[in-house]
Amino acid sequence: MNKVLTIIRKEYLERVRSKSFLIGTLLGPALMSMFVVLPVLLSNTGAENARTVGVVDGTGTVMARLEAGLAGQGRGNMTLVPYRADGGGLEAAVDALKKAVKDEELDAGLVIPPDFIATGQATFFSQSVSAMVMRDEVFRPQLDRILREERFTRAAVPDSLFNYLAASTSWSSFTINAEGEQQKQNEEATFIAAIALIMIIYIMVLMYGNHTLTAVIEEKSSRMVEVLLASVSPGNLMLGKVLGIGMAGLTQFGVWAVAFFVMSEQGVAVGGFSLDVHFLTPVILISFVMFFLLGFFLYATLYAGIGAMCNTVQDSQQFHGPLTMGLALPMLLLSLVLRAPDSTVSVVLSLVPLFSPVLMFMRVCVETPPLWQILTSWVLMAVSIWLAARLAGKLFRMGILMYGGSPTWAGLVRVLRS
């Protein structure tokens, strides 16, 4: 046992004293906030490139109302250029508009026919598929509004009735806590906090799992492992490495957590988002620690076993990809779980041990699932860790002193079956 503790201490101190650990601890939250907070801030500021759109207005009245609507919406980056139907008629104006779009003098073109109010038809020209976003998010809502207003006016609908029918809903969102009390909810801040925690699990499990892989390969290639195995068994060596590196990752998260709580108490805000610890309920905090630890030990044991079979980092690349997909694939499935966290598909996927650190924790953050589902995911991950440790231990014992050719999938299967 003392030998295992010595290995744990060595691996732990080796990482927390490194410059990369210090830099990662200081810059890690800033880098993760760039992936989570920055896109939201940019979308809220409407920081888009300036667009020039040519307009053929066959009605003679819609373009002016369209410009006013865009100005009221804060679309100052949108410039409308009129293409009048004088002289050559409407067809000549449309031809000139299409030529300007083709020659990239305009980003897009919009044709509003004379019978627009009666038919509701409009034509949009562009060279880029991305311009369709501008059509659907900018012009479609404005033209729909103008169409409704003009039809109500022609039908002589009283202004009072129009205002009544055109009214929109004003929302107030609250959460109900365990005591049955309502609390004001900030959905945007809650969502950002949930994504930030998931990114921490994803990045740290992947990063420290990879540290385990490289640590084993480095000691094997330097023949240091031969000295270590003279006084400790392969199983204890693998256990010490995994626990030591895992404690380093937990230390890094602990530093971030303390800094977060201190800044929250001081009322610090980033880009208008206040750092509020009320989102971190006991269930979320406990789940985060459990999913980080279980996820790390599951992947780290697999990485350690594979590292023992490889002589260089390049040899491990063929095995590294499939393991990485175990964490990358659930990141792609986040939107599915977010839309329907209690659906059968979401429940089944979140119980898959390789996916649970991301998907089950996402469910805990957005809509806490029944306790039995959370506990079941922990049990399944614990069983998977036990099975992975047995397989990785076998790879470690058989491969740690193997040198020579590059390992293959067939060779790995032979070792497991022997």
Topology:
Layout (H helix, E strand, L loop, with lengths): L1 H15 L2 H27 L5 E7 L4 H11 L5 E5 L6 H14 L5 E5 L3 H4 L3 E3 L5 H24 L4 H7 L8 E3 L5 E3 L2 H35 L2 H5 L5 H32 L3 E2 L2 E2 L7 H28 L7 H16 L1 H6 L4 H8 L4 H11 L4 H29 L9 H9 L1
Parallel strand pairs: 1-2, 1-3
Antiparallel strand pairs: 3-4, 5-6, 7-8
List keywords for this structure.
single chain, 418 residues, alpha/beta, 2 domains, four-stranded mixed sheet, 7% strand
- Beta content comes to 5-15%
- Enumerate the spans where pLDDT stays under 50 for 5 or more consecutive residues: none
Shape: elongated
Largest sheet at a glance?
4 strands, mixed
Number of helices: 17
Radius of gyration: 30 Å
Q: Terminal Cα separation, in Å?
A: 29 Å
How many beta-strand elements?
Answer: 8
Instruction: Give helix % range.
Output: 55-70%
Structural class from helices and strands?
alpha/beta
Q: List the domain count as a whole number.
A: 2
Mean pLDDT level: 78
Structural overview:
By secondary structure, this protein is of the alpha/beta class. A hairpin with a 5-residue loop joins strand 5 and strand 6 (182-184). The chain is built from 17 helices and eight strands. The chain has a four-stranded mixed sheet with strand order 2-1-3-4, with helices on both faces. The mean pLDDT is 78. The protein has two domains: 2-40 and 186-417, no CATH class; 50-165, 3-Layer(aba) Sandwich (D-Maltodextrin-Binding Protein, domain 2), CATH 3.40.190.10.
